[in-house]
Amino acid sequence: MAEAFLWSALACYAAAAVAYGISYRSPGIFGRAATWCVRLGWLAQTGLLVVQVTEAAGFPWATWSASLGLFVWLVVTAYLIWGCRPRYRLLGVAVMPLAALLLAVAYAGGGATGGAGRYSSLFLVLHVGLVLVGFAGFTLAAALSALYLWQERRLKRREAKILRVSVPSLVTLDDVAGRTIAVALPALTLGIAAGVVRLALHGGGFDALMGMTLATWAVYGIFLLLRYEAGWHGRKAAYLLLAGFVLVITVRLGLPAAHFS
């Protein structure tokens, strides 16, 4: 049952990625079809999460692969807040290929079955859950920044077909990206705090994943500081958010195996 939900979600996300790509050249029906594929994929993955909850003895996303699947679900959830609106559909060009790829990686790592970890469920909800919420917000902000830079380039080139594809204004994209970070960073902060409290109470070593997570927190903290104290907006802010996203992907894919063992 779990694999059926996962394959359905993966197929819908992949179809959405293709349809969004086509909609850039041929706006209209492909964009609407892509949005429905995302919705159906999200429902299928929600079904997968429900199955994992009912089958697990504890927190079902304690393993690296299962937590990656939950991360994908959170990213798609965050995307649907904006992506269902016609003007924001092109965010799917950046978000959905990544979602399909990461879900495939999670499946390859055994993420369809989930699994309980060696820590308490309350700690994992606070630590893993909040950290992943923060990372999902950072991912959406990176997509908004990429769309900002793409649209800015089109405007400077004065492309003849610039009005053919509906995109929010540069000011709107910049503002939404900043507000997304303003919500995501506190979630990450609370997740890190839960991990620090556990280390203080029960002991444990400091590993590379913790260091990279703190580095990610610092980059986005600097972003908010520069934005609201130094007036960073536009291209500079977008490049900083994309640089921070490199750390997010590194944390999610490159380092977590030992941390989750």
Main beta-sheet annotation: none
Number of domains as seen in the coordinates: 2
Our measurement of the CA-to-CA distance between the termini, rounded to an integer number of angstroms, reads 26 Å
Q: How many beta strands in the DSSP annotation?
A: 0
Shape: flat
Report the structural category: mainly alpha
Low-confidence stretches: none
Helix content: over 70%
The count of helical stretches stands at 9
Present the secondary structure layout.
Layout: H1 2-25, H2 29-55, H3 64-83, H4 91-108, H5 121-157, H6 170-202, H7 208-229, H8 234-254, H9 256-259
Helix pairs in contact: 1-2, 1-4, 2-3, 3-4, 3-5, 4-5, 5-6, 5-8, 6-7, 7-8
Tell me about this structure.
The protein has helices spanning 2-25, 29-55, 64-83, 91-108, 121-157, 170-202, 208-229, 234-254, 256-259. The chain starts with a helix and ends with a helix. It folds into 2 domains: 1-116; 119-261, no CATH class. 79% of the residues lie in helices and 0% in strands. The longest helix has 37 residues, at 121-157. The chain is mainly alpha-helical.
Keyphrases for this structure?
261 residues, mainly alpha
Describe what is shown at a glance:
The chain has 261 residues and is mostly helical. It contains nine helices and no strands.
